[in-house]
Recover the amino acids of this structure.
């Protein structure tokens, strides 16, 4: 059995959270099934977030991560800045991993609760982590199990990014079954 305690440094919390991401169901034998959105719904979420921001005149990138923390869908607006690709991913990852760990739904909630790590900013040195508004956790309707995260980047301010991500989640939440 792996000893996750030895990973308690920078990524220990994240590694532990990813292990606990969703209540895994054991099928017969040693197969573990972990719930996640299918690629079609992940793509619809990203597209809707980009559309919501475009309706306000903002060109953004939206990224959906699955329960492994990897990109599942990415939609880029027509004139987004280069860095929006990595920033949207990091917001989605942070909303998922740390939202799971602290039972919060957005990167804004994490920031407001001051769960961004020690004062020296050590958590922000983890490559995937970014405590900036614009990320929303994706949770199953029936039991609130984690399904991933969505992050948006490119609007003039993280609160605008997050509003577009939240609009997409609100539109499709009933399908998170």
């Amino acid at each position: 059995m792996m000893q996750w305690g030895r990973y308690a440094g920078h990524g220990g919390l994240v590694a532990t959270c990813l292990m606990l991401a969703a209540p895994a169901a054991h099928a017969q034998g040693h197969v573990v099934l972990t719930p996640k959105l299918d690629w079609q719904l992940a793509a619809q979420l990203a597209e809707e977030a980009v559309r919501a921001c475009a309706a306000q005149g903002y060109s953004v990138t939206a990224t959906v991560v699955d329960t492994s923390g990897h990109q599942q869908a990415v939609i880029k607006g027509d004139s987004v800045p280069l860095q929006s690709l990595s920033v949207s991913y990091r917001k989605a990852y942070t909303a998922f991993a740390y939202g799971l760990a602290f039972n919060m739904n957005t990167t804004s909630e994490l920031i407001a609760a001051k769960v961004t790590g020690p004062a020296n900013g050590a958590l922000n040195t983890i490559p995937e982590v970014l405590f900036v508004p614009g990320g929303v956790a994706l949770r199953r309707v029936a039991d609130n199990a984690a399904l991933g995260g969505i992050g948006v980047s490119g609007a003039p301010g993280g609160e605008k990014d997050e509003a577009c991500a939240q609009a997409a989640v609100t539109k499709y939440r009933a399908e998170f079954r």
Notes: Confidence is low (pLDDT under 50) at residues 1-22.
